[in-house]
Amino acid sequence: MDWWEGPDAEPPSAAEVVWEGGNERTLGMGLSIQLRRYTWQNPLPDVEIETIDLVSASVESAPFLTAITVV
Q: Are 33 and 21 in contact, with CB atoms under 8 Å apart?
């Protein structure tokens, strides 16, 4: 999913918008920029996480990770 959102966009039900803003280009197009929080349970909580892979099936994607909190 894109982080540029139009007024009719339906975010996934598992995502919570935690920041919303804009820049000259998005605001001129009637769009906003959003960051979302996804939360999941580690299926193997006793195993140390050594790496995380960001994988996308979209040819024109540019995935990025803002932060991870592990408790």
A: yes
For residues 31 and 4, the answer to whether their CB atoms sit within 8 Å is yes
Distances (CA, A) of 55 to 22, 58, 59: 26, 9, 11
> Residues 40-55: pLDDT tens digits?
888 888 998 889 888 8
3-state secondary structure of 70: coil
CB 21 within 8 A of CB 48: no
Q: Would residue 43 count as lying in a domain?
A: no
32-38 and 4-5: which strand pairing? antiparallel
Instruction: Decide if 62 is inside a domain.
Output: no
pTM: 0.61
